[in-house]
Each structure stands twice: as structure tokens, then as C-alpha cells.
Amino acid sequence: VHQSKLDFFCKLGYGKQDICKVLENLGQEALEDDVLKELIRMGSKPQALESQAQPSPLKLVARGSCSTSPASKWLGEDDSDSTDHLRPIVIDGSNVAMSHGNKEVFSCWGIQLAVDWFRERGHTYIKVFVPLWRKEPPRQDSPIADQHILEELEKQSILVYTPSRKVKGKRVVCYDDRYIVKVAYEKDGVIVSNDHYRDLQNENPEWKWFIEQRLLMYSFVSNRFMPPDDPLGRHGPTLNNFLSKKPVLPEPKWQPCPYGKKCTYGNKCKFYHPERPHQAQLSVADELRAKIKVPLSLGKEEKCNRSP
């Protein structure tokens, strides 16, 4: 029991010393929810967050060095932070699997489709939470399809089972939604689910804001995982900006000039002129002066050539 709990919290990123201290205080039979609350109360953070909070020391570079590494690397920033600009992904495995199975079958293939979609985008941190009792053989009241996918994702350290046990023949299941929201909140990531977690929103005001702003809904269209292009509505960020730590501002779209080539405003015109995209927008008077100066300069050159 001690080893299983130790492995479980190590997967979440907590240190072994902090876990052992909490288990000594609470006892080996303590529930995982109580252990997690005690770790948060102690101020313990996952190793990934600690590495972000503690910048590495500055590195001195010799003058004239031919090193091609960017300045951000020797100014003390972590390499993983400079390259990985995408947010961590936390997937509600039960919600995704039941949605792919039309709410009748726990389809593990739907989880695989979602994981593959985020992998292709380049996300490196992907976690899927599924209750532990889904490891058991399927029954008529809870059918499971493609159960071997869960084992493969667990070997890849992507899938995490939320704990459950049997007491006097009855199954005691921990609330997996709380794990999902806690990990996503600590990692400052994105929750992939069609559930609104209203009970958890009422439980914590910080979670309420986080769920409203970081919940990514989805649909399955012909075995294709499809999140919306506008996760927060028409006036919200695009999907690329929603999944990125550093959003990119869209380029301004210029409105074409209603007068077209007949426009006399020149460089003072605030509209776009497609007929002169690579030319400076000169006024009509400046264009006439430029045309007049060219033949005058040519005449002066001819006179200078004839004089000697």
C-alpha cells in the first residue's frame, strides 16, 4: 500500500521525502485525497513547478564567443520553458471515453484519439485521469471497449488511475474530478472535458475562474477528435492562442479603399490600396513633382555632357 501511494504521488511530481512525511503523520491507510490536501497544506509543489520557481544561476559567456545558443539560455532561463510554449493538457478520461461511446460504452479509443491530437500539436505534458476500477473486467452494466489502450497509456506515463477500493463488498471511489481540476490548476494547464464541474466551482472561487477560462470542450465527428476553433466564444481567443502560454496577436486586416485608383488622399488615406502594395503611398501632388523632376534631371545631365 505504501509503495502504490508513493508511486502514485511521484507520478504527479511530488518529492518522495514530502510524501513519506505525510504518510508518517497520517498513517499508511490514509486516503489519497487526505494525503493530497496535506501536501498542498505543507506548501509542497510538484518538481516541475519548483524548477520554474527557482531560476538557474547566470552563466558567463566569454567575449567573442562563437556560441550559437540564444541569449535566453545563458540569461538563466530554463531550456524547456523557452522551447515548450504550449500549455499542459489534463484530460477527463471518463468523460472523453463515454462521449466517444455515445454514453453507452466506455470507449478507450476515444481517449487515444484525444491524446494523439494533442501529441501532433506538440504538447509534451499530457495526463489522462481514469478511475482505478476501470481496470477490472467489463460487466454488462459497465461495458468497456479496447481496454488494452489503458495499459499502453499507463506504460507511457500518460494515464493516471484515481484510487478506489472495496470495503465489505462495496466499492469506495475517490472523486476523480477533483484530481483533474487540482492538477490542471497547479500546472496552469487546460482541462479537456464536456463537464462544467459546477460543484467544484462552488467549492473554490479560484477554481471557478480557472474552469471558466481553461475548460476546452470537444466533439467526435466520424472518429475524429474536434475541439472548437473559438473555445471561449466568438469574441474570445482562437484555439491556437487558447492552448499557448504566449498568445500571438492577429495581424490587422486592412479595409480596401472605397475610391480605389481614384483616391486623392495619397499617404494620408487610412484605407488599403491593393494596386500599390509595395510602394509608398504618396499624395497626388508628390507623384506629379516626382514625375517632373525626372526629365529635368535628365536634361541637366545632357547639358553637362555637351559642355566639355
TrEMBL record:
Cross-referenced CDD domains: PIN_Zc3h12-like (cd18729)
Cofactor requirement: Mg(2+)
GO cellular component terms, A-Z: cytoplasmic ribonucleoprotein granule; nucleus
Zinc finger intervals, C3H1-type: 251-276
A Gene Ontology molecular function term of the record: zinc ion binding
Keyword hit for Magnesium: yes
Record's keyword terms, sorted: Endonuclease, Hydrolase, Magnesium, Metal-binding, Nuclease, Zinc, Zinc-finger
Domain C3H1-type residue range list: 251-276
Assigned protein family: Belongs to the ZC3H12 family.
Protein name: ZC12D ribonuclease
Species in which this protein is naturally found: Grus americana
Organism taxonomic ancestry: Eukaryota, Metazoa, Chordata, Craniata, Vertebrata
